[in-house]
Amino acid sequence: MLGPDVSGYLIVSAFLFATGALGVLVRRSPLIVLLSLEIMLNGANLALIAFSRHFGRGDGQIFALAVMAVAASEVVVGLGLIVAMARRRLDLDVDKLSTLRG
Amino acid sequence: MTPAAWVCLFLPLGSAGLITALGTSISRRTAGWIATLACAGSFVAAFVSFVAMLGREPENRSELSTAWTWLTGGDFRVGFSILTDPLSMMMMLIVAGVGSLIVAYSIGYMDGDDEERRYFAYMSLFVFSMLMLVQGGNLLLLLVGWGLVGLSSYLLIGFWHHRPEAVAAAKKAFIMNAFGDATMALGFFLLIQKTGTLDYAPVFQRADGLSSTVLNLVALGLLGGAVAKSAQLPLQTWLPDAMEGPTPVSALIHAATMVTAGVYLIVRTHPLFELAPRVEDLAAGLGAATLLMAGLIALVQTDIKRVIAYSTMSQIGYMFLGAGIGAYANAMFHLMTHAFFKALLFLAAGIVIHALSGEQDIRKMGGLRALMPRTWLAMLVGGLALTGVPPLSGFFSKDSILAAALDRGWYGDLLFAAGLVGAFLTGLYTFRMLFVVFGGEQSAYVQEHPPHAHGDAVARWSMYLTVGALTVLAVFGGWFQFAGVWTPITDWLDPVARPLVEASNAQEAIASVLAVVLGLAGIAVAWWLYSARRARVPKPSRVLERKFYFDELYAGIFYWPAVALTKLFYWVVEGPLVGGSIRGVTDVARWSGSRTRALQTGLVRSYVLALGGGVAVLIVVFVAVR
Amino acid sequence: MIIASVSNVVVWAVWVAAALACLGSAVAVVSFSNPFYSALALIGNLGSLAVLYLLLSAEFVAAAQVLVYAGAVMVMFLFVIAYLGGRADAPWAGGPTWQAGAAIVAAGALFVEIVVVIASKADGRLSSSAEIRRSFGSPGEIGRLFLTDHLLAFEITSVVLLVAAVGGVILGSHAREESALAPGTGDADARA
User: Fold this and answer.
1) Domains of chain C by residue range
2) What is the pLDDT of residues B481-529, one digit of tens each?
3) Parallel, antiparallel, or unpaired for β B76-84 and B63-73?
4) C188–B contact, CB cutoff 8 A
5) Is B14 exposed, middle or buried (0-12, 13-18, 19+ CB in 10 A)?
6) 3-class DSSP state of B71
């Protein structure tokens, strides 16, 4: 294979995943949290595609496409929630949305 | 013979059940009639059985009839059986006869009471229980009857349950009797262990081979029960309090029948007592001590019923004395005559109490002789019979016990002396009561509350007729035996309870003369103190007034330590341990819940952080483990 | 097989550029306070990922990535951000909190762990990749796989999409009724 071998792609994928996790943990706006979630999913997708190329089988790409579809659905629902919250004039701050507390 | 005995036993139970089942659908008077007819029917059945028994040879007069096997445990079996023999026959006749008279009297006495039906149901239950006691074919059924009469006594003493004194008295009676029940049960356990049975005949046969320790223990257990039930020293304090119950209850249960169950027990199990002679002597000694103590206390009582109650205690002392020395027939004879004249005294006193609208203090009474002549006559007969004046019934029975005591060596002489003193006391306290109540001028109270008849015609005649019947019995009831000359009762009981002692004619004569003289002396002193001089009832000594401090003694020994112990347990165990542990559990649960709740911050970020951290840790774990 | 006709050096250069862009845009998404900028950075991220997919011979996935992700999903995001008005949210305001510190530690730990685990378990098997045919990653290949080996996944994915669509409609319509019943509109009941 031309270019770097799989391990390079995997390092990129791991970095993407960790960055996405950091974003989810640190940011307070639910919108940004969703965006960070997208980054994590994409990191996983990259790993899948890389391994698919490494083993020469197309299953990884199928899996990646399925992940993409699921991510899209999740974004739909998530954004719907955010819009509903905005309509109710709720503060878009995950720290303040803590009614489900003990 | 036996079928009639079964009928006799179960008729009162049927009456109790019927009255209970019919409840308020029958009138109160009807309940009274049901109970009376049942008890009368019981007496008729007993009489039929008696006649049948008369037709048999003396050796052939015992019959044990078992309905079904009640308990089995290994080799041990107990059947639901009744024993029809001369001793139980005698008791059946007394219980059913006097019982039906008293129940009939109750129709008049309890007339107008709100809970008359309950009363008659309880009375029927009591008659059944007493019959079960005397007819029981083995020791276990005797114990069943024993417990049931204790229950009926409790129910009837506390009949007017809204009176706290009545409730307290009922509890006291029941608890003291429970003590006796416990000692009896322990004795029975020993018998089961050593002889393997509780039927009378096998037990008596096998008891011969047991060690003296076992026999003494068994006899002591039985004596404990007898002493409790018959209100003898040292378990006598419940009987005066039991006077809180209605007067017919006092007459039937606490004079004629239940309290005499102890005497019956000793006579029934006399083979066991004869094998434990020290305990038998103890029984006689307790009887003598009780008759003296009760006689002394009766001298200072101011409640008419309590005078008669202490008199009962004293007379049962005589019976215990007789049974303890082995004069079984004499003791049973005295039981019979005592039932007559003591019931008579109680019922007549009941008429007086009702006539004076419930007043029982003799200091408030006086001069009733002119106003209630027939009642005066009835009580006079009863009092004379009690004191043992010939030819009334008490004379024949009491003196024969005293005479038998002379046949017993130095101990018997001691008992004889005690009995004589008791005779003097009996005359004194009985006629003190009679003279104070009936003699002299009318007291202020009597003038303000002239005696009136109670209830309608049926009620009044039920009371008068039964008292009249008992008067007749008190007069002629002693003519069943004249010691030394004509002894049908001793002969009747011979197959069952052969007496150990027999007084010679000379001893009989001495005893009779001395007893009568002393009794009359007591009457004379009472006359001098209370009638001729009309002395004011003097202030009694502290000791007598406090009934020899027995109540205080028992309170100190049993009650206060129990209270202190429960308080201790409450503060040490119940509070911290039981309550504390429960509270501790809830506190721990609540605390752990609050700590766990702190994790539920509601903040999404902390949840995700926890997730991320957990994943990181898990990866390390999986890698390291692999 | 575009890659085959190009030399190794070019591939390396493209790879480095795409990887750096990917990583940089990811950090940018997390760091910007303006959500609009974050969304744009994410679009850049998606684009560089598509390039990386191409380098891995996954042509169809790369195209899908650009069309679906960057085209549809991100547009949706931008719509919502525009609707909401781009509220600013300064992530590092108020100084470093213990949560932020713990988050950095956790994220760092994740990164390190993933790399270490894969490196230790790989045993050198990652150095040589398999040979692939020309049709690897082509739409035909993808289609064939979808309709034979992974038919179930295909069908279930369509169900998931349906559910998401329905959910979106419900979430949206609920809000519309709410605003119709707001105070001031008296004829809401007549129309409902």
Assistant:
1) 1-87
2) 776 667 778 778 877 877 877 777 788 888 888 888 888 888 888 887 7
3) antiparallel
4) no
5) middle
6) strand
- Give CATH for domain C1-87: 1.20.120.1200
Count chain A–chain B contacts defined by CB atoms under 8 A.
Answer: 33
| pTM given for the model | 0.66
Closest alpha carbon to B397 in B327, B345, B467, B343: B327
Rounded to 5, what percent of chain B is helix, strand, coil?
80, 5, 15
The distance from CA B601 to its chain's CA centroid, rounded to whole angstroms, is 74
Q: Is B619 on the interface with A (CB under 8 A)?
A: no
User: For position C16, what pLDDT does the model report?
Assistant: 94
Residue-level pLDDT at B540: 62
DSSP class of B443? P
* Parent domain of A13: 6-87
B599 and B536 within one domain: no
Instruction: Measure in Å the smallest separation between the Cα of C11 and chain B Cα atoms.
Output: 34
| Element spanning B93, H or E | helix B86-109
Tell whether B468 and B592 lie within a shared domain. no
ipTM of the complex model = 0.90
Q: Is B595 on the interface with A (CB under 8 A)?
A: no
Is C175 in contact with A97 (CB distance < 8 Å)?
Answer: no
Contact across the interface for C110 and B609, Cβ inside 8 Å: no
Residue type, B355: A
In angstroms, how far is CA B6 from the centroid of its own chain? 24
Residue type, B185: A
Domain identity same for B594 and B473: no
In chain A, the number of structural domains is: 1
Query: Rounded distance, CA B82 to CA B3, Å?
Result: 10
- Does residue A98 lie in a domain region? no
B320 and B352 housed in the same domain = yes
User: What are the C-alpha distances in Å from A83 to residues B308, C165, C188?
Assistant: 99, 15, 22
Residue B549 pLDDT > 60: yes
User: In angstroms, what separates the C-alpha of B613 from chain A's closest C-alpha?
Assistant: 11
B32-38 contacts: CB < 8 A, separation 24 or more?
Answer: B32/B103, B32/B106, B32/B107, B32/B110, B32/B116, B32/B120, B33/B107, B34/B120, B34/B124, B35/B103, B35/B106, B35/B120, B35/B121, B35/B123, B35/B124, B36/B100, B36/B103, B36/B104, B36/B107, B38/B11, B38/B12, B38/B14, B38/B124, B38/B127
* C129 φ/ψ sector (left φ>0, alpha ψ -120 to 50, else beta): beta
Helix, strand, coil percentages (3-state) for chain A, rounded to 5, are 75, 0, 25
For range B76-88, the mean pLDDT: 88
Which of B489, B520, B541 is the last residue before a domain boundary? B541
Q: What is the CATH number of the domain that holds A61?
A: 1.10.287.3510
Cβ under 8 Å to B: C residues 117-156 = 117, 120
pLDDT at C181: 47
Residue A93 covered by a domain: no
If asked whether residues B531 and B499 sit together in one domain, one would say yes
C89–A52 CB contact, under 8 Å = no
CA distance B365 to B351: 13
Q: Between residues 87 and 146 of chain B, which touch chain A (CB distance below 8 Å)?
A: none
Q: Are residues B492 and B565 in the same domain?
A: no
Number of folded domains in chain B? 2
Residue percentage of chain B with pLDDT more than 70: 97
Q: Which residues in chain C have Cβ-Cβ distances shorter than 8 Å to A97? A: none
C neighbours by CB contacts (3+ pairs under 8 Å): A, B
Residue B577 structural domain: 553-625
- Asked if the C-beta of B538 comes within 8 angstroms of chain A's C-beta atoms, the answer is no
Given CB atoms, is B602 within the 8 Å cutoff of chain A?
yes
Question: Is residue A35 assigned to a domain?
Answer: yes
For residue C101, the distance in angstroms to the closest alpha carbon of chain A comes to 9
User: Does residue A61 form part of some domain?
Assistant: yes
Q: Are residues B517 and B566 in the same domain?
A: no
Residue B457: partners with Cβ closer than 8 Å, 6 or more residues away: none
